[in-house]
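User: Thanks for the earlier help. One more: Ribosome maturation factor RimM. Can you show the sequence and predicted structure together?

Assistant: Of course, both are below.
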Amino acid sequence: MSPEADTPSGRPEALRLVVGRIGRAHGIRGQATVEVRTDDPDLRFAPGSRLLTEPAERGPLVVSDMRFHSGILLLSFEGVADRNAVEALRNTILVVEADPDETPDDPDEYYDHQLVGLPVELADGNVLGEIADLLHLPGQDVLAVKRPAGPEVLIPFIKQFVPTVDVAGGRVVVDPPAGLLDLDSVE
């Protein structure tokens, strides 16, 4: 069932948002390092938070403790008492269910589902294509734009190259650096 599908009550189904990935164990008391994939870790990983998992059979997990150590998020989960139990959870994706109408507090932040499918225009008004995906790379986020003619183009998701994101108006305006759109012609 797609995230946009309605439930029998007529309300949109909750969206599943990836918020992290469990890494190595930290210490011997069942703490896990977590690769954060959310802009609001204090909310998503607050003690008592229930996190779904991928694969599903590893969860759900309930956060019992959260802290940052040298810039790394450390989580403890109810029922996960030692290093071996954490290692068994390594590479587990952490997921939360969110209201599809929920939006980030910061007006310059967006959830992936808000952007995927939006038309993309160049600064001169010409249509470039539509957003096929938002890639969260280590250096920065990148928009993957599917074009009607030509290969997909990747545009760094920074204000300099993406000056306008109008979710309500249903469009994104990009001003890519010179030559970026011509890379498909290079052999």
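User: Great, one quick takeaway?

Assistant: Residues 63 and 77 are 5 Å apart (CA to CA).
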